[in-house]
Design brief:
Length: 288
């Protein structure tokens, strides 16, 4: 089996490289930006045609949620059109595509976890561009694409909420964190493991799936728990979203129902958010 990964330098891409170092039974090809630039469609097709992998995992994306509001053409190219081009190329070489999408395709009006079948209705341009990517991938390669929507991703690698909180809690006596947005964090190591479980499953099941850690919390609870587990003295004050204005609107509620992925892929493991957070803090050397 040959797995090609696009977007190798981010949180998920780097976690996949860690798994690749252990899974030597699989042939891995990691394409950095210098090989596949999702803003340049010709690099996508050329790479897939050359490598002819059995599975492509697309970990590359335009992930600056606020910047996407004003950088719309590039966000749409990378998160939208490029995914259609990639799916078409995968279809041509008989490869399956595992593409990562986001909870931000939803409008946040739910009060119970979003099902994979629920209509999308993004509240910001990043979410819109990712929704277009989902649609284009399914239009180009419906039988060979698995879309994995995830949320609130953090890792030992890259920049993320957990590392920002640890830094700020070391610098300040108190912090304000929004307490009226509910979702669920995802440890990128768990997401990478889930992608590999799907890639190596006996039966490939195409379609849309949700994957995050389990549970439902606010950013405030997440921050307070990071502080408590890391033994930080910093006080975390709950504030409303209105106190922390951002260029891109965020969904108020983006908890996702994880049933579909566990039914289609029984080897995918779902971990409780607090257990995964402890593992990441341990890796960061920050667990008290
Ligand atoms: N982070 C989250 O909270 C979150 C939440 C929901 C869904 N997701 C989705 O999860 C997936 C993985 O996210 P992540 O957190 O690992 O993101 P990340 O750390 O921001 O990594 C994104 C990767 O995409 C690469 N990239 C950017 N522009 C590219 C281009 N034109 N061509 C090829 N690669 C390009 C980046 O390269 P450089 O490092 O060189 O810029 C980086 O390696 C993405 O699809 C994202 O939309 C993330």
């Amino acid at each position: 089996m040959k797995i090609a990964v696009i977007g190798t330098g981010g949180q998920l891409g780097t976690e996949l490289q860690d798994i690749a170092a252990k899974r030597t039974d699989i042939t891995w090809v990691f394409a950095g930006l210098e090989v596949v630039d999702l803003s340049k469609p010709e690099t996508i097709s050329a790479f897939v045609m050359l490598e002819k992998p059995s599975v492509v995992i697309n970990a590359g994306a335009y992930t600056s949620v606020d910047k996407a509001e004003t950088d719309q053409a590039l966000a749409l190219q990378i998160n939208g059109h490029a995914v259609g081009t990639l799916a078409k190329a995968c279809s041509e070489v008989g490869a399956t595509l595992i593409h990562i999408s986001t909870d931000y395709v939803f409008n946040g009006n739910n009060t119970t976890p979003y099902l994979t079948t629920q209509a999308t209705d993004p509240v910001n341009y990043y979410g819109y561009s990712k929704m277009i990517g989902e649609q284009q991938a399914l239009a180009a390669h419906a039988t060979g694409t698995a879309i994995i929507r995830t949320s609130w991703v953090y890792s030992f690698y890259g920049n993320n909420f957990v590392k920002t909180m640890l830094r700020l809690m070391g610098e300040r006596e108190s912090l304000n964190v929004v307490a009226d947005q509910q979702g669920c964090p995802t440890y990128a190591a768990d997401l990478a493991e889930a992608c590999v479980a799907i890639a190596t499953a006996n039966n490939f099941v195409p379609g849309i799936f949700h994957y995050s850690n389990s549970g439902a919390i606010t950013w405030h609870t997440f921050a307070a728990t990071i502080g408590a587990l890391a033994g930080k003295k910093c006080t975390v004050h709950p504030v409303p979203t209105s106190a922390y204005p951002t260029p891109a609107k965020r969904p108020a509620y983006s908890v996702m129902d994880l049933t579909a992925i566990t039914v289609a892929y029984p080897t995918v493991k779902v971990y409780a958010w607090e257990d995964s957070l402890k593992r990441c803090l341990q890796q960061l050397g920050a667990l008290a």
